[in-house]
Amino acid sequence: MKVYAPDGAVGPSAASLAPPRPVLAGKRIGILDNSKPNAGLLLGRMAERLAARTGASVDVVERKNAALPAPDDMLARLAEAEVVLTGSAD
Amino acid sequence: MADASSQLVDIGSDDPQVLLDRFATRGWGDGLPLVAPTPERVDAMLAGSSREPDEVVATLPPRSGVATRRIIAINAVLAGCRPEHLGVLVAAVRALARPEVNLRGVNATTHPVAPLLVVHGEVARTAGYNSGLGAFGPGNLANAATGRALRLMLLHVAGAVPGAGDASTQGGPAKYTYCVAENLLRSPWGGYAASVGVDAPSAVTVHCGEAPHNFHDMESDQPAAILDKAASVMASLGSNNAPVSGAEFFVMLCPEHAAACAAAGWTRGNVASYLHERARMRTGDLRDAFALRAWAPWQETFGDDAGMPITEHPGNIRIVVVGGPGKHSSVIPSWGMTRSATVPVEPEP
């Protein structure tokens, strides 16, 4: 018996990740804190250690509600960094 | 009628168990038996409409799945829908894709949120939806199958698969099927859709929230006594409405409770205003419970001992008449960062 697949096509993604930076020395690190508990602490410490090890700098820190997309102006500020750390759940 | 967006799969057998097993292997289905979406059945589902089957109705996150009318029809067949349910399902998909619904968040959250689909107007009668006794189920094909088909759309097309696109900690029974019709004939205030500006013969509302929480009042015919029980359900630390004051409540009044309110001269707006006034919690208790709050700036000015309305304004309290004889009504809290959407059911020429 032949049946239709129920999932259909995948549309274009709204955005794609930039390729990873091979060298972080001299680069600017941004943090997008999604306001989940301890997200800012975790991401901040990671960024500090990454900066200390590589010679990068932590330049941009933004905080948003986890349940909503980041506003355009926040994304524009984060775009000034070459690397952005984000993502933390409950 | 195969096309680029809907391919045929040979499952090698007519045995329903084989269909279930093959689909499960691919990560499809909701765990319950499925109706095989054969080309004949899908064509029959689409036959009632002259619209283009490959018309894109919406793109659903997080998978960015493209919901064409044919894909919707395939999922409608799987769920057991009849062709007369397709227009409701298409409207529901269109409503879910509205930006204010925030479907990406709804699907991805750890909360047990499920979109409640409310069917309004003529189609509820002509397509057999239950708005009366036992409207939330079980036992009615239209309600059960349409709600299930919407969930299958979320699983298959939107990618809201537990552990992948759906992080719900405990899941929830409303994630199997969650569809009800408004009891227009017993609503003393006219239809809900018209009250929010959707003046169409038929419409649907989606509200992304919890499963219904019952309240009963068998003792009073006074609106205040009845509605104080609803307010008590609403004023709880247990729902996301507590930290998200912009979130909505749907209050599904049974016809007898609605009639008691109307007999006392209360409008739908009066009911919402009363609930807004009465559903309060001590501000300090809310602050202690939620360090992370999405409140309006004026709310933060309240002292700890002041009574804080559980939602920011009466417009967040939506009143719909549902059900049959008896004195049980329900409150459906919100996931929070979402707004309900009401859209017309377009005629299927």
Throw out a few tags for this protein:
heterodimer, A: 90 residues, alpha/beta, 3-stranded parallel beta sheet, 22% strand, B: 349 residues, alpha+beta, 4-stranded mixed beta sheet, 12 helices, 13 strands
Describe the structure.
The complex is a heterodimer of chains A (90) and B (349). Chain A has helices at residues 39-54, 72-78; strands at 2-4, 28-33, 57-63, 83-86. The model of chain A has no long low-confidence stretch (mean pLDDT 89). A 3-stranded parallel β-sheet of chain A has the order 3-2-4, with helices on both faces. With 90 residues, chain A is α/β, with parallel strands linked by helices. Chain A contains 2 helices and 4 strands. In chain A, 26% of the residues lie in helices and 22% in strands. By secondary structure, chain B is α+β, with helices and mostly antiparallel strands. In chain B, 32% of the residues lie in helices and 17% in strands. Chain B has helices at residues 16-25, 39-46, 69-79, 86-96, 103-108, 122-126, 141-156, 192-195, 223-234, 255-263, 268-278, 283-289; strands at 8-10, 56-60, 65-68, 114-121, 179-181, 202-209, 213-216, 249-253, 280-282, 307-309, 317-321, 328-332, 341-344. Chain B has a 4-stranded mixed β-sheet. In chain B, strands 7-12-8-11 form a 4-stranded mixed β-sheet. A two-stranded antiparallel ribbon of chain B has the order 2-3. In chain B, helix 4 crosses helix 7. The longest helix of chain B is centred in the middle third of the chain and has 16 residues, at 141-156. Chain B starts with 7 loop residues before the first strand and ends in a 5-residue tail after the last strand. The chains are: A alpha/beta (90), B alpha+beta (349). Chain A binds chain B through residues 1-14, 35, 37, 65, 67-69, 89-90, and chain B through 2, 4-14, 19, 23, 26, 28, 36-39, 42, 59, 63-68, 70-71, 74-75, 78, 102, 104-105, 109-110, 152, 156-157, 167, 169, 292, 294, 336-337. Strand 1 of chain A pairs antiparallel with strand 1 (8-10) of chain B.
